[in-house]
Amino acid sequence: MTKSALVIGGGIAGIQASLDLADRDIHVYLVEKEPTIGGKMSRLDKTFPTNDCSACILSPKMADCAGHPNITLMTYSEVIKVDGKAGDFKVTVNKKARYVNPDECTGCGDCMEKCPSKNIPDEFEFGLTTRKAIYIPHAQAVPRVAIIDPNHCRKILNDKCGLCFKNCQKGAINYEDKDVQEVLDVGSIIVAAGFEVWDAGIAAEYGYGRYADVVTAMEYERMMCASGPDGGHILRRSNGKAPKKVAFIQCCGSRSEKEGWQKYCSSVCCMYATKQAILTREHDAEVAQDIFFMDIRSYGKEFEGYIHRAEDEYGVKMHRGSRVSNVSEDPKTKELIVSYVDADGNPVDAKYDLVVLSIGLNPPKGGAELAKVLGIELNEYGFCDTTVFEPLATSREGVFVAGAYAAPKDIPTTVAESSGASAKAGAHIVGADFKPCEPKVYPAEKDVAGEEPRIGVWVCSCGTNIGGVVDVPAVAKYAEGLPGVVSSMSSMYACAQGTLQEISETIKEKNLNRVVVASCTPRTHEPLFRGACREGGLNQYLFNMANIRDQCSWIHMHEPEAATKKAKDLLRMAVAKAALFESLDEPKVPVTNAAAVIGGGVTGMNTALDIAAQGFPVHLVERADKLGGFALNFTHKENGRKVSDYVAELVKKVESDKNITVHLNSEVEDIPGYVGNFEVHMKGGKKVEVGAVILAVGASPYKPTEFNYGKDDKVKTGLEVEALVDAGSFKGKDVAFIQCVGSRNDKVKYCSRVCCASALRNAIKIKLADPTANVTVFHKDIRTYGFREDLYKKACEVGVMFVRYRENDPLPGYDGKAVKAYDTVLNKEVSVPVDTVVLSVGVQPDREEKEKIAQMLSCPISKDGFYFEAHQKLRPVDFATEGVYVAGTAHWPKFLDECISQASGAASRSLTVISKDNVTAEGIIATVNEKYCDGCGVCEGCCEYNAITIVEKDGKLKSSVNAGLCKGCGSCVAACPSGAMEQKGFTNAQIRAEIDAFFGSPAGGA
Amino acid sequence: MAKAKFEPKIVVFCCNWCSYAGADGAGVARLQMPPDFRIIRTMCSARVDPEHVLRAFSKGADGVVVLGCHPADCHYIGGNYRARRRIALLRMVLEQYGFDPKRLKLEWVSASEGEKFQTTMVDFVDTIKKLGPTPLVQEVQ
After folding, report:
1. Which residue from A87, A454, A728, A932 puts its CA 20 to 30 A from A38's CA?
2. Are strands A813-814 and B37-42 parallel, antiparallel or unpaired?
3. B90 touches chain A (CB under 8 A)
């Protein structure tokens, strides 16, 4: 029997993991303990470093999850028991009583209106606002279904009230609802239970809970958000006025030995605080802001530039090396007094209107109990235990982990891991007996070409949401008289199962060839009505919607007459457009079920193995004469195992995998094609056909010229020293590590991410081997993020010395005998005698090499010279060019474990393409009427996806659209000077008909 | 003929991914605004052909608004930049023909900016009410 996969946790990690599996035709149970999916990300205002609106980029993924035929969404549910073993788990899920039937509830909110039990702190808003006993968690909740809080419901508590039951016209309320348990058969499990924010109340010295204007960063996200408690106006909690001076206190709950604090670094706080400061300034150009921190940890892609922008363009003052000791309140003015030590070592008391605590990340509440249920090990900090070589595996076979449940991390890392975990989980499901989920089968579509329009109209009341304002029967009656309309009905809930059936049946009975529904928004409900049309044998593109709720009754609540007139207009416009609809195909482009991985390092090999594990052929293309890549240079151990041993084993695995063909000495010369159909041309004339391409071409170390490197024997790179140390032949007594050689300077502006932790690893080894050695690290910040903070702590314990030089100083000086720098802690120039200088060299992108391949595939390069993904937050391993993916250090400098999980992520993303027989293109793509086309090429130039080429046909130049590449934006259509371009579903005639219908002229367009 | 109260007719083009969602968001938040506009949805603001705008004006629109994703947020990478150029140019053309370019507005409204959608519409309706009915149709009549 084909098993499903189970994903635990409906935050961005669980959402991405579920979508990847489901897109690969594997059925998924997505279990979330809250009543809505979305997790922490749905509560953020914006995301760094692009300042994308968090809800805007997340909501479509949430809707995808809810509407995906291969995903069974189980919200407000918890896993309570796991039996069996990998490939054959029996999982018991407790579905908690919701007291509202989700199949009946339309999310209209009528029930909430009358609920007398109010002033309950709203969990979604972190208690900044209140909710009622019956509520919908938030505006974008998925599913958008009400829920009763039994601890506050008067009916459930005292058998009084019952108003929501009376008010719900759908009969969805059920006070007798009980928890229900269900047993699921699953082949593998992904745990993506996320994190909890640190309890700021523990930091008594910062006054959280005592002073109204000391807030946590999470609360501040809501305070900034347009959908938050103050409608997007940042207001002090004490007096409702806009703050003019804001302080951000970093490492609140992190990097401390204090009781109740965490020892590790929470990885994301430096960046989110900087984001909040930038956004605060965008709210109010006058606001003054200070960020107090020990080290600023901007190690990710384009993070360093973001910090500089905050300082230079947004006037954010950075207090480096300042840990705030205390926050108190001026009892008269309610101003907050922040006590800290300034750069010159003087104690300072500064006044602020608002203090934001950059709270760290904890393991989630109930995370330990969940681990027990799953039978997996946690680490000393209570996060899921993983290893460097298997970052996505837990201690139990068949159970994988993604996201912050394993360690504090940012969203892109989480998303890449989630895809990766789904590749791993999928491998346990796609055995010999695997049957992909069957697509839903609809009745054959009837041919409506050439028929006169026979339009059926449904006008929805949406309970009272529309009907309470708009005269729905009058609108339905009005529709009867519109050109082409043969049937018009009103409905209490058009989305109810009964109405959907009515639509399907009426299509057959009255031989309808178009359907128009006037109700809510197509963004949420179009797929549902399209489904009803398909059930009735009608092409789904013959359906149109008029939005008379969100964009009419809800925004003109006090003007019923005007709203009714507007609803008629909107319906008339929708009918006029629908009359011109044609049946559209979603073109299917055949797919070659194989992948090419360019680059045979650790990343490339892992990607290849993950794809091969699901039974698909992989071509691993390496330009060198052997596999292994840069990791062949590593001599150190991770989790007690030599990296070189791991690499050797990996090479062996790859070479013996029957699905993997290794091409050595094979530089790539060209990669023509598009999603599903690429050809990889290699040097020497070799050529392979694949459906997807993964770029894992790596990066290389900076080649230093500083410190007389290459001429002075005392000066070595970190890698050279590590080889000596690991071989036991290192003899240095006075050792200086120089950080940021080839990073964070005028030429290379970014931070290379890996150098701090690598340097400290070696510094510790040197000190442990010879405690009498003097080891000094010269640095700007120490960026040992996450659990790597243990290295920093350990280095301090074993006596490694640290000299923090000034942020804008050049590298420390060196005269062949001593290293000199200005120590910002001692506030004076220091000179440290040395017999060894270790250069912590950065990672460089090999831009020219990357550009060559980038040009073959139309993939962009970031300003720092690494590959630039489709979306920095939510599509970290995808390119905008479909079917092409990136992983490892080709994307950004990163550690081995990060490369390995990203490798799996890219494998998973490519599997969503190559596991299919064909890819479905958009139905609403551009087409060319060659009769009018002059081949001028204006369209070609304005296509963002390279979908248009000018080709010669019968001696004349004509535009040609590649259906596989076109995304249906319609930009080329608006640009075409001769009217030869058209966009299906949004033709010029259809848009004109819509415009004309508003002004009353009959439908017909032209 | 008694002078009827001026009820402007305004066409609003919204891109599917940001501004149409922002308009929905205004509804979800029950933000109230004048009912004088009708939204036409396109996939991208770059689909809005200047000809569509002119068509609306020629049919009697008192104002036209084109809404798109914020710069750098376009679902189709850079469609909004094209819309910006096209509308800027069109405004110049309108002005050259003696048609007040204030009757054509381009604005960025993200999916989360229900409030911005509201203020945009309130302000634009106000502008149009001050400008009065479109001179085009009156001349034709």
Report:
1. A87
2. unpaired
3. no
Interchain CB contact of B31 with A (< 8 Å): yes
pTM: 0.84
pLDDT at site B138: 57
pLDDT tens string B66-78: 999 988 778 888 8
Task: Kindly state the DSSP code that residue B103 receives in the 8-state scheme.
Answer: G
Chain pair A-B, CB pairs under 8 angstroms: 156
3 state SS for A921-944? CCCCCEEECCCCCCCCCHHHHHCC
Nearest to A153 by CA among A179, A124, A117: A117
pLDDT attached to residue A1002: 46
CA distance B98 to chain A (A): 23
For every residue of A541-608, DSSP letters joined together read GGEEEEE-IIIIITT-TT-HHHHHHHHHHHHHHHHHHHTT-------EEE--S-EEEE--BHHHHHHH
- Decide if A561 touches B, using CB distance below 8 A: no
User: Which run of H or E residues covers position A251?
Assistant: strand A245-252
Separation CA A848–CA A319 (nearest Å): 38
Q: How far apart are CA A122 and CA A103, in angstroms?
A: 25
Neighbours of B119 (CB within 10 A): 16
- Identity of residue A292: F
CA distance B35 to chain A (A): 6
Q: For chain A, first and last CA: distance in Å?
A: 56
Q: Which residues of A touch B33 (CB under 8 A)?
A: 555-556
**Low pLDDT (below 70) residues in chain A:** 1, 56, 1001-1006
Contact with chain B for residue A880, Cβ under 8 A? yes
Q: How far A566 CA lies from chain B's nearest CA (Å)? A: 7
- Give the residue on A whose Cα is nearest the Cα of B14: A551
Give the span between the Cα atoms of A514 and A497, in whole angstroms.
20
Alpha-carbon distance A947 to A858, whole Å? 11
Report the residue of chain A nearest B62, measured CA to CA: A999
Q: Under DSSP, is residue A951 helix (H, G, I), strand (E, B) or coil? A: strand
Please name the residue of chain A whose CA is at the shortest distance from the CA of residue B64.
A995
Residues whose CB falls within 8 Å of the CB of residue A720, separated by 6 or more in sequence, listed in order = none
> What are the two backbone dihedrals, phi and then psi, of residue A549, each rounded to the nearest 5 degrees?
-105, -75
Contacts of B114 in chain A (CB under 8 A): 226-227
B62 touches chain A (CB under 8 A): no
Angle formed by the axes of helices A755-769 and A718-727, to 10°? Answer: 30
Which residues does A203 contact at the CB level (< 8 Å), separation at least 6?
A252, A253, A261, A357
Angle at A426 between CA A422 and CA A427, to 5 degrees: 125
In terms of Cα–Cα distance, which of A569, A992, A979 is closest to B54?
A: A992
Q: What is the ipTM of this complex?
A: 0.97
**SS3 (DSSP) at A621:** strand
Residue A95: other Cβ atoms inside 10 A: 17
- Kindly give the pairing relationship between strand A134-135 and strand A147-148: antiparallel
Kindly give the pairing relationship between strand A130-131 and strand A120-121.
antiparallel
The total of other beta-carbon atoms located within 10 Å of residue A549's CB is: 27
The helix/strand/coil state of A92 is strand
CA distance A160 to A98: 19
Q: A787: which DSSP letter?
A: G
Tokens 């831009």 identify what position? A847
Chain A: residue whose CA lies nearest to B111: A56
pLDDT tens by residue, A12-42: 999 999 999 999 999 999 999 999 999 999 9
Upper half-sphere CA count for residue A529 (Cβ side, 13 Å): 27
B110 touches chain A (CB under 8 A): yes
Question: Residue A60: which residues within 8 A CB-CB, separation 6 or more?
Answer: none
